[in-house]
Amino acid sequence: MSRDDSNASPSRAERKAELEATIEQQRLDILLASRRFHLAGERIDAGWQALSRYRTPALLAAGTALIPVLRHPGRLARWGRKLVVTGLAIQRVRRLVKR
Length: 99
Description:
Blueprint: H1 12-53, H2 55-71, H3 73-98
């Protein structure tokens, strides 16, 4: 049986070189995707860092605001109902204005 070189499968070295080139291209693609990911998230990260600077004062303010709510829980329920009704009314007005 004679082997025809045009129909022969690639040699081991050729296949290895092809796989190494594929891996190198995949590495480059991953590096590029990683860079795009970091660039896309920069603004979010900067915003989160800005918010985290104010974490302690925000917790103190929330705790201070929570004291009256715990002393009179009915007020919170009333304000919650008012907010829900106001939000629904605004939503209905917007729908009417669109028509």
